[in-house]
């Protein structure tokens, strides 16, 4: 964090936060409510605005041998979905999240809010070339699994006894055929009711948590 701007009301409510910032040598500047409105993208800002470094890291520092669980988003356009999946990845103990292709910028305000703080926990990297992203996962020793509603293999048929990179596609179109041909395995979530599909964030939560719980059970 480089600098913190805070209104009088927010300063009174979050004295501990300001004290921690000052102890860390971060400048704290008072601002008016009007200024806070101008600095924030939300309708009702909380009165605290921080200037921080970008969170994404170079690919080579993120995708390297030793990673156990990675989440790859391909062409995911909705910042709320991307942020929610980053939060899911964090909760499941994933090592990294890769935003590949035309995926949304993780620094988008809605993505940051949807991640609810998890943007700062798993390593985040952006790779424009989807094929390069998948090859980097494979080079790091990760099995690539693509989530695909029409796959032959169902989630409960998969064993998670090796490091895995889950690959999720665009909200409307899913994974492109070229990606499905590249991944090591395509997997679908079985539908026991009458729903035709699940949204991206829900599907990611089911797949990633199934993987994480199975891996932890096998390790004990």
Strand content: 15-25%
Low-confidence stretches: none
Report helical residue fraction. Answer: 25-40%
What is the H/E order?
A: EHHEHEHEHEHEHEEEHEH
Distance between the termini: 39 Å
E-strand count? 10
Q: Output the structural class.
A: alpha/beta
Strand order of the largest sheet: 6-5-4-9-7-10-8
User: What is the average per-residue confidence, as pLDDT, rounded to a whole number?
Assistant: 93
Cα Rg: 20 Å
Approximate shape: elongated
Number of helices: 9
Main sheet makeup: 7 strands, parallel
Write the SSE topology.
Elements: E1 3-6, H1 8-13, H2 15-23, E2 28-30, H3 33-39, E3 48-51, H4 59-62, E4 69-74, H5 79-91, E5 96-100, H6 109-115, E6 123-127, H7 130-139, E7 143-147, E8 153-154, E9 164-168, H8 177-182, E10 185-188, H9 200-219
Parallel strand pairs: 1-2, 4-5, 4-9, 5-6, 7-9, 7-10, 8-10
Antiparallel strand pairs: 1-3
InterPro entries: Alpha/beta_knot_MTases, Ribosomal_eL30-like_sf, rRNA_Methyltransferase, SpoU_MeTrfase, SpoU_subst-bd, tRNA_m1G_MTases_N
GO molecular function: methyltransferase activity
Keywords: Methyltransferase, Transferase
């Amino acid at each position: 964090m480089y600098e913190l701007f805070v209104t009088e009301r927010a300063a009174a409510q979050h004295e501990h936060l300001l004290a921690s910032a000052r102890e860390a040598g971060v400048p704290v500047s008072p601002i008016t409510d009007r200024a806070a409105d101008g600095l924030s993208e939300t309708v009702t800002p909380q009165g605290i605005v921080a200037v921080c470094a970008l969170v994404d890291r170079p690919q080579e520092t993120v995708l390297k041998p030793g990673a156990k669980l990675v989440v790859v988003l391909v062409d995911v356009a909705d910042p709320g979905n991307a942020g929610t999946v980053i939060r899911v990845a964090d909760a499941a103990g994933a090592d990294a999240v890769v935003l590949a292709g035309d995926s949304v910028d993780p620094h988008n305000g809605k993505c940051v809010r949807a991640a609810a703080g998890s943007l700062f926990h798993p390593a985040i990297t952006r790779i424009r070339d989807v094929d390069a992203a998948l090859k980097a996962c494979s080079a790091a020793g990760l099995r690539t699994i693509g989530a695909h509603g029409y796959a032959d293999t169902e989630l409960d048929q998969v064993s998670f006894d090796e490091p895995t990179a889950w690959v999720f596609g665009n909200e409307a179109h899913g994974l492109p055929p070229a990606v499905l041909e590249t991944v090591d395995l395509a997997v679908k979530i079985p539908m026991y009711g009458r729903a035709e599909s699940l949204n991206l964030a829900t599907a990611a939560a089911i797949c990633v948590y199934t993987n994480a719980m199975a891996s932890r059970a096998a390790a004990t």
